[in-house]
Batch of 2 targets.
Target 1
Amino acid sequence: MKITLHLMNNLFFILIIILSTINQIKSEEYTVGDDYGWNTGFDYFEWSQKYNFSVGDILVFNYVQGQHNTYEVTEDTYRSCNSSTGILQMYDSGNDKVSLTEAKKYWFICNIPDHCRGGMKFGIEVKQGSSNPGSTPQPPPPPPTQGSNNGYKIVQINGMVAWTLLAIFGIWFFELDFLIYCKII
Ligand SMILES: *[C@@H]1O[C@H](CO)[C@@H](O)[C@H](O)[C@H]1NC(C)=O
Ligand SMILES: *[C@@H]1O[C@H](CO)[C@@H](O)[C@H](O)[C@H]1NC(C)=O
């Protein structure tokens, strides 16, 4: 009885690790502007076309705090660069992590005067995660031109670490079970 309970506890624990691993594999982190970060003098429209974004992904805006900020706005405000209305979220940490939680169009601007008009603005369409699980999980990452940071590397590493931990914990717990089982017998 005791042994069964113990085993079930461990199975439950391992299940949690598996689930969190799957969760990690699904979400990807994209640094806006890649190595260039969130700054003036960059084509964010072009950047926004490079990736396909899915629900659960995270956008990271890197900049010197105080020099820029990140506003999620409505499409109208994105187009007009007039933020007297249409602000949905505001971030100003210099390392803003924006979780893309909904399948919808997201619009971002920098609200420092003239930065939006100067090009610090872009929109992305976030889609529901891979709807056909039968197909390959991830397309191969685009060739890493100019050392650009794409989300796949981070995800692969996260996945590997998680799977290693899972294996270690799994072996350890089952060994523990075996030892307890032997002692009681
Ligand atoms: C994004 O999705 C489109 C259509 O599903 C595909 O053709 C394209 O290769 C994808 N782009 C990337 C960077 O994965
Ligand atoms: C921004 O919009 C508001 C009202 O929508 C308007 O009163 C204001 O003049 C606009 N600002 C600029 C700089 O166009």
Target 2
Amino acid sequence: MIIFLDYDGTLVPLREFPYLAKIDPKRKEFLRKLAKKHKVAIVTGRDKRSFSQVFGEVPPELYLITSHGARIYKGEKLVADFLKGKTPDLGPLKEKLRELPGTFLEEKEGCFALHYRSFEGDESKVKEVFCSFIKENPPLRVIEGKKVLEALYGDFDKRKGVERFLKFLNWDRKEEVIYIGDDTTDLDAVRRVRELGGRAYFVGRELPEAEGFFGDVDEVYRFLETLQEAVDQY
Ligand SMILES: [Mg+2]
């Protein structure tokens, strides 16, 4: 079985700032064990540095797909790199964001994310600043998530991340594929996985694109435990 797992909001609850979303060590160990039985890939919008901040060292059993599919790692080792685009100088944007306390700019490889979960003012002001910046520095793609706006300057998204990873594994189209995510950024991947005959689940809300949904992160782990146990019986 191939299991794709989003990180923020799926394997850890969403936090006010991305760097606070640390993995529980017991759950990390559980994922490592799960990855001994199935091919487990964490698919995140974070880049490797930001992911390591909250996850620590990636065990060699686990795959990691960073920056919405730009790079594939096996453990700590980079095994495939699709990152080509470069982010523009974010200086002018940072300058403007100083006037909007509570906003947080996450600089990543080939993209940037503007978080405003802790911003208490008029949200349209944040969007205005973001839009005027991307007008001057047009990205290839913009993604709006939960209180976050992302500008992607390279050719990658989670759908491509899924496709590239399956290709990387030489997937035989028979092995079952599962995807679990929680955000609009996961939707393309969810659709693709279902097109390919796999199962996809959403966390926190029911969506027509997904097969089913989990109420929260704890439920995700309970489901993953059943996948672990199913194999244990043989
Ligand atoms: Mg997420």
